[in-house]
Amino acid sequence: MNPRAAAGVTPAPLNPLLTGGAEYPFVTLDRKARELVPAGLKPINFSIGDPREETPEFIRETLKGAVTPVSSYPAVPGQPELRVAFTGWFARRFGVRLDPETQVLPANGTKEAVFLMAFAVVGRDGADPRRTVVIPAPAYPVYEAGARFAGAEPHFAPLRSEDGWRFEPDHVPDEVWRRTALLWLNSPHNPTGATLEQPALERVAALARRHGFWVAADEAYAELWFESPPHSMLECGLENVVALHTLSKRSAMTGYRSGFIAGDPRLIEALRRFRPNVGVATPDFVQRAAAAAWSDDAHAAGQRARYAAKRELFLAEFARRGWKVEASGATFYLWLRAPGGDDVAFVERLLRIGLVALPGSYLGASGAGFIRFALVPTLAECREAVERMRRAGAELER
Question: pTM of this prediction?
Answer without folding.
Answer: 0.93
